[in-house]
């Protein structure tokens, strides 16, 4: 009888150990570590390609677009808002003068000469990097309003605004006419 009782106790003990083993495996074995979060890497396609001063110096239409963008979005001369319709585009007339080239900026890349009644906004380069904006003051006998900045500042501002793509797209809606 003692043998049977010892055997029964041994079997109950082994069964208990087996049950505990099964329970602990199911409970602790299937747990996911809480600190293991999976994140997807950021896609490089969504990143904007910044503009550079080299881009501006090599591609005149891109520079004109950046100069117009800056005048419309960050310029202090109110009349530059006349060329703020990004859907119409722009016509740039390059005129040679004794004081250097002047770049007249007309709204609408398809503007006709008959529609060009008032002196347009214009800009000029005073050095390799400096840009001077000009605007005729309507109904005034004063000098033109001017604002000066640099190409490098314009490039930095465009990149800071995240407007690199917008400025690149401006080139497609721009006509450039030279007076040679």
**CATH level 3 topology of the largest domain:** Yope Regulator, Chain: A
Q: Kindly state the percentage of residues in helix.
A: 25-40%
Succession of helices and strands: HHHEEEEEHHE
Domain tally: 2
Enumerate how many helices there are, as a single number.
5
Question: Globular, elongated, flat, extended or rod-shaped: what is the shape?
Answer: rod-shaped
| Rg (CA only) | 36 Å
Strand coverage percent:
15-25%
What does this structure look like?
The protein has 180 residues and is α+β, with helices and mostly antiparallel strands. It has 2 domains: 1-35; 45-178, 2-Layer Sandwich (Yope Regulator, Chain: A). 37% of the residues lie in helices and 21% in strands. The chain is built from 5 helices and 6 strands, in the order αααβββββααβ. The protein has helices spanning 2-29, 53-58, 60-74, 151-161, 164-170, and strands at 90-97, 100-107, 121-125, 130-135, 145-150, 174-178. The chain has a 6-stranded mixed beta sheet with strand order 5-4-3-2-1-6. Strand 1 and strand 2 form a beta hairpin. Helix 3 packs across helix 4 (151-161). The longest helix is centred in the first third of the chain and has 28 residues, at 2-29. The radius of gyration is 36 Å and the shape is rod-shaped. The termini are far apart. The model is unreliable at 42-46 (pLDDT under 50).
């Amino acid at each position: 009888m003692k043998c049977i009782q010892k055997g029964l106790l041994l079997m109950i003990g082994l069964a208990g150990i087996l049950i505990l083993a099964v329970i602990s495996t199911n409970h602790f074995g299937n747990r996911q570590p809480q600190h293991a979060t999976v994140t997807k890497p950021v896609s490089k396609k969504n990143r904007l390609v910044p503009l550079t001063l080299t881009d501006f110096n090599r591609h005149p239409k891109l520079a004109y677009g950046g100069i117009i963008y800056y005048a419309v979005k960050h310029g202090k001369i109110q009349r530059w808002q006349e060329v703020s319709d990004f859907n119409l585009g722009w016509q740039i007339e390059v005129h040679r003068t004794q004081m250097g080239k002047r770049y007249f900026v007309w709204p609408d890349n398809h503007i006709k000469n008959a529609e060009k009644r008032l002196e347009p906004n214009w800009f000029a380069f005073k050095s390799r990097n400096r840009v001077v904006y000009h605007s005729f003051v309507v109904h005034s006998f004063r000098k033109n309003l001017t604002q000066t900045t640099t190409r490098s500042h314009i490039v930095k501002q465009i990149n800071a605004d995240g407007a690199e793509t917008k400025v690149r797209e401006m080139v497609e809606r721009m006509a450039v006419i030279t007076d040679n």
